[in-house]
Amino acid sequence: MSVGISLASDHQLARLLQIGVVLEEVAEARAAKHASESDVIDAEVRTLLESAAVESAEHRDRLEGLINGLDAETVGFKQIEQLVEQQYETGEEFDGVLYDQLCTEETAYKFYDDLIEAIEGSDARFSVDRDSLLRVLREVRNDEEEGAEAVTELME
């Protein structure tokens, strides 16, 4: 997923941050579903998935805080969770669960990396502090990178 636009307004930034919220909601729902429903994963993988769900919820809250500074609304987690339950079928095999988690972490990392690049390349003035915005996004991106590395280690 590539942001691929130059940011020129609060409205554009809010929409991109809302995409980040949706990514985090989907990641949270998938990780929680894998952790609670799969009988073939071991305790280490279950712990990783449970931690990933908690981390995604924290990321979502941080992004929503930024959006609130822009006076925009987000889609509720329950709506996304129901959509995921209806359209997403989990594989029960061990590697499928880890592969799904790896894809989720990598997708989020790439999105945040692109968003940071778009903000850095923009001259727009936003109603949230640019330094704080970039700090939050860099921290979230780093968490996603660490998550992908943790999954990769378990897959080896």
What is the helical fraction, as a range of percent?
over 70%
The number of domains:
1
Structural class: mainly alpha
Radius of gyration: 16 Å
Summarize the helix and strand pattern as letters: HHHHH
How would you state the average pLDDT, rounded? 84
Shape: elongated
CATH hierarchy class name: Mainly Alpha
CATH topology type: Ferritin
How would you sum up this structure, described in words?
The protein has 5 helices and no strands. It has 156 residues and is mainly α. The protein has one domain: Ferritin, core subunit, four-helix bundle (Ferritin), CATH 1.20.1260.
Task: Please specify the SSE layout and strand pairing.
Blueprint: H1 10-37, H2 43-69, H3 77-87, H4 94-120, H5 130-155
Helix pairs in contact: 1-2, 1-3, 1-4, 2-5, 4-5
Structure, briefly:
The chain has 156 residues and is mainly α.
What distinguishing features does this structure have?
single chain, mainly alpha, Ferritin
